[in-house]
Design a protein that fits this description.
Glutathione S-transferase Yfyf (Class Pi), Chain A, domain 2; 2 domains; four-stranded parallel β-sheet; 15 helices
Length: 302
């Protein structure tokens, strides 16, 4: 399966482990990723606060370049990028005058036919099409599926029928052997870009998310948003300060969880880049009758 790929700024920088694991899993699933040539920043999360025209023109150029490359669909794994591209596409389709101005400035033709897809949709399609290989190490853990703000909002724009209790990531994690927990913070904000000017605010928000996930018995938090991962992982000390307690629960990208379930090496999945060590208890050992839990860190899991 051939699909366009827009990694965006985060996946080529602070969240490169998301890119590593996504490419590794895509290769195993037989998905050919074609990176958009000469792509630019989508503008998140500052352009739309400064200039409405720029907030549309930046994503429009990405879409135009993808169309020019002959791509029919575009995988946009970053939730912020996904939100900006979806919003720009809708605005351009509804406003002919804006579409003409943008086309003139970027000197590119934009038809608007390309389909924008998030990572959850692509993984689900792989499962539905029968391209999912047999699991060699099922992800046998209780997980809190964390969608964050932008993946499910606005509901009509992204096509989410249960914006307050989405199930797509839960179903995907169940498919690889995990047990998703029912929890209250799956779509609550982590603080997003406030992590730089307001780290104490992000700490309080992340503390609430971590406390609820742990209280429900989750052994790991799984996400597909680079900003959510950064705040829950990098800002762990701020969250612990706000909560007045320690949190050991790791945060994984869904592609890393899939990679582990498929038996991939942890280094190939970028697990060593996390600040909070990925260390989980293998419940499968108990199920086999050993009566003992087996500790698995990134190296042991591989």
């Amino acid at each position: 399966m051939r699909t366009g790929y827009f990694p965006g700024c985060s996946l080529t920088g602070s969240s490169s482990e998301f890119d590593l694991s996504l490419r590794a899993v895509a290769d195993r699933l037989g998905i050919e990723l074609v990176e958009v040539p000469d792509w630019n920043c989508c503008g998140a999360s500052s352009a739309h606060c400064v200039s409405h025209f720029l907030s549309v023109a930046l994503p429009a150029r990405i879409l135009a370049l993808a169309e020019q490359a002959g791509l029919e669909e575009l995988l946009v794994p970053c939730s912020a990028c996904y939100s900006r591209l979806m919003s720009a596409k809708e605005e351009l389709a509804a406003d002919a005058g804006l579409r003409e101005r943008v086309a003139e400035v970027m000197d590119l033709k934009l038809i608007g036919r390309i389909r924008i897809r998030n990572i959850l949709e692509v993984l689900q399609q792989a499962i539905d099409s029968g391209k999912m290989p047999a699991l060699t190490a099922p992800f046998d853990h209780k997980v809190a599926c964390y969608y964050g703000c932008l993946l499910v909002r606005p509901p009509k724009l992204v096509g989410c029928d249960r914006p307050e209790d989405p199930q797509s990531m839960d179903k995907l994690m169940s498919a690889i052997g995990a047990t998703p927990v029912d929890w209250a913070f799956k779509v609550e904000c982590c603080g997003a870009g406030a992590t730089i000017p307001r780290p104490e605010l992000v700490g309080r928000l992340c503390a609430d998310i971590l406390k609820d996930a742990v209280s429900r018995g989750a052994e790991a938090i799984v996400t597909s948003c680079p900003m959510c991962h950064t705040n829950l992982d990098m800002r762990r000390s701020d969250a612990e300060k706000a909560a007045g307690r320690k949190f050991d629960i790791p945060v994984l990208y869904i592609t890393q969880a899939f990679g582990l379930a498929l038996g991939m090496d942890s280094k190939r999945l970028g697990l060593e880049r996390h600040l909070v060590r990925v260390e989980l208890k293998r419940r499968a050992a108990e199920a086999a009758g050993s009566g003992k839990e087996e500790t698995s860190g990134p190296r042991a899991v591989a």
